[in-house]
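Many introductory courses stop at the sequence. We go one step further.
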Amino acid sequence: MEVYRSLESYRPGAHSVATIGTFDGLHIGHRTILERICQTAKEIDGESVLISFHPHPRLVLFPENNPLRLLHTLDEKIQMLDEIGIDKLLLIPFTREFSRIPSKVFIREILVETVKIDKIIIGYDHRFGKNRTGGIEELNRYKDAYQYEVEEISAQAIDDANVSSTKIRKALESGDVATANSYLGYTYSFGGTVIHGEKMGRKLGYPTANIQPHDPLKLIPANGVYLVQVEVDGGMHYGMLNIGNKPTVGEFERGYEVNILDFDQDIYDQPIRVKFLEYLRPEAKFDNLDQLIAAMHDDKAKSLAKIAELENQQ
């Protein structure tokens, strides 16, 4: 996939089939549209193009105390779009000035003159341009003058999925990773770097790798204990991830530490990725360390049972 990070750098190909949007999370609803532009581009021996924006528009338009956290880092989004089969990604730098471009100008200068679309495919409810005034109606209004085709992805095709990035964020913020994964169509994850911690896990019999997330804007699920898959040092392992403030051993800033099962290697300063499989329990404050250790034993027993179930399904 070719990635362009400005309008000026973009190089159009022949017979471009495009869509527009932020596509945070690339969930199953998004894929309905993306798979359609890929299919259509192949049918006309053309190129599939996603026109997107960075940073996320809401972070630019409402920067003060904005609680929005993203389902994808930019690098994650680029990798997944490449795997889906998109030919070109045009990342338009989103600014307040850009947000004021009227939809008619967006169509003429970006869709027609820059991308040189043969066809635009968007969802029935997608809006673009200044004050989000552009949509299917305006695209149809100018299609004859600028000689492009418009295809609308119907409400039924999109809404049947019953999914949105907002619903996924709410599920993750409540710890419901099972629902989030079903909406996404893949296992939610985050990446980071292994850093030094308090090394309390070693004393408890459960050594952990402390994780510094790569991107502070990446949404990380609710505090609690999760069964996860861990990708580190070229291998994939199961583990138990604790997210929270470690209330039993003292109040700390929110942290992320994973006990990797059947693993004993020095991985400090290495990249690590954790994939959320199941929520085990909420974070809790125990009266003493013995109670905490007992809870961790119980977490491990539940994890091993779930792992056996998962492996039997394979």
